[in-house]
Design brief:
single chain, 286 residues, alpha/beta, TIM Barrel, eight-stranded parallel beta barrel
């Protein structure tokens, strides 16, 4: 077992980005795709988590509107506001030295008009200090992507299952299963690349379709529930680290059990306070 652990540690050290400590940028992700170097992306919503993930070598920190159902207690992402996003994105930006920080544009912050999109994206760049924004949607949103890019704001696109359309899509379902739907998603991805998007998230689509899109585009694809053929992978912080009590999704691999650790520590603290064990024996303050 010791040999196995040592081997795993060697792999971890070998894949750390120590050889390239400079800031990850939107153009550098395209260079990573060209080199065949996988892109690592995680969601993040606060300063201490950003510090830890940045030091661990995560390439991209996504301040997702998933803050709604992971941090703020909402059922889904739809109630999240621009003020919510600016608040959390600013905290993440303050915690990063290397990672590219991307912020989701929340529901109805960009769908109403390209002018609204530019104004709200500008808030995330100016007030929150992020490096790029992410928009959900296919070819119909390409003109908005083009307007933002023309104004100097890097845009990450997002197709397949798009959480802001959860009611229209009928729930959390795999997209692009039949031939026509697959062709439509491929056309969407190409339109978004043509509009200037620097990367595209592929969520909950068949592995074969994700592979086709990845091969067809020069910009990197980042998958979530889309198989291993994408140029990178993204997962939600709370799912990866077990900081949740909800059912684990099939495409998630859990690397820790923070929920169990925190609950156990809180239970022991409460027991120590009630029994007088804490703070017994500690010197008085000052």
């Amino acid at each position: 077992m010791a040999t196995s652990n040592a081997g795993h540690q060697q792999v971890v050290e070998a894949t750390r980005p120590s050889a390239r400590p400079s800031r990850v940028t939107a153009p550098s992700l395209k260079d990573m795709k060209a080199r065949g170097e996988k892109i690592v992306m995680l969601t993040c919503y606060d300063y201490p988590s950003a510090r830890l993930l940045d030091e661990a070598g995560i390439d991209v920190l996504l301040v997702g509107d998933s803050v709604g159902d992971n941090v703020l207690g909402y059922e889904n992402t739809l109630p999240v506001t621009m003020d919510d996003m600016v608040h959390h994105a600013a905290a993440v930006s303050r915690g990063c030295r290397r990672a590219l920080v991307v912020a989701d544009m929340p529901f109805l912050s960009y769908q109403t008009s390209p002018e609204d999109a530019l104004r709200n994206a500008g808030r995330l760049i100016k007030e929150a200090g992020v490096h790029a924004v992410k928009l959900e949607g296919g070819a119909f949103i390409a003109s908005t992507v083009g307007k933002l890019v023309a104004s100097g704001i890097p845009v990450m696109a997002h197709v397949g299952f798009t959480p802001q359309s959860v009611h229209q899509l009928g729930g959390y379902r795999i997209q692009g299963r039949d031939d026509q739907a697959a062709q439509n998603l491929l056309a969407d991805a190409r339109a978004l690349e043509d509009a200037g998007a620097f990367a595209i998230v592929l969520e909950l689509i068949p592995e074969s379709l994700a592979s086709r899109i990845t091969e067809a585009l020069t910009i990197p694809t980042i998958g979530i529930g889309a198989g291993p053929m994408c140029d990178g992978q993204v997962l939600v912080f709370h799912d990866v680290f077990g900081y949740t009590t909800r059912r684990q999704l099939r495409h998630v691999r859990r690397y820790a059990d923070l929920a169990g650790t925190i609950k156990d520590a809180a239970t022991r603290f409460a027991a120590d306070v009630r029994s007088g064990e804490f703070p017994a024996g500690e010197p008085p303050p000052g």
